[in-house]
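Q: Can I see a sequence and its folded structure?
A: Here is a first one.
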Amino acid sequence: QAQLVESGGGLVQPGGSLRLSCTPFGNIVAVGRMAWYRQAPGNQRELVADITAGLSTKYAASVKGRFTISRDNANDTIYLQMNDLKPDDTAVYYCNAYLWPVGESWRDTWGQGTQVTVSS
């Protein structure tokens, strides 16, 4: 079964940096748009950044200039480089991808989430 595996969360002080990664696993024909979302306690899940297979990117206004999304099309891994982190960035970060698994149709897929905590 196709799935997304994330890594890279943790605890960091304000002003620090973290890098998240997300890789699809399983029998997959193709991978389309990929993205990072986040959800803080009591808040709705929100888009942080996304990237197409053609490497076009889009960012939430709150992270523009601090976060960078990138993609390695050789293995469809995406990264989220997060710099100058602020306490408001504290959330569970979720990878999202539009996958075409073998024998199935295109479907929206979510990772399990990774916690990012920004605190002194």
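Q: Show me another, different protein.
A: A second, unrelated one:
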Amino acid sequence: QVQLVESGGGLVQAGGSLRLSCAASGTSFSITLGWFRQAPGKQRELVAAIARGSATAYADSVKGRFTISRDNAKNTVYLQMNSLKPEDTAVYYCNAAGVLSGGVITPGPYWGQGTQVTVSS
């Protein structure tokens, strides 16, 4: 049973930074991990993903501002978010066991509980 626990969300002013963490258990961690987000009234969308070989993919809206990374020793994936904008406000979800190929990710079946990120203007 794969379990994902997110942390690090919160309230920040526009232009500020946050770092999200997702601790994974019940898996070898040699899997693709991703961050998705869902704003009120909108569909869940990809933010960033990192494959087991460390290849990455980002949504165009976050390129140059967000960085995804992983620490295999800690079974943890991170999302460093800089220059945050009000439109980044959403619940952010960690996802595991997806497929990242050609810069396109298909999410896997495992999701965390989500962490709220709110960016005030």
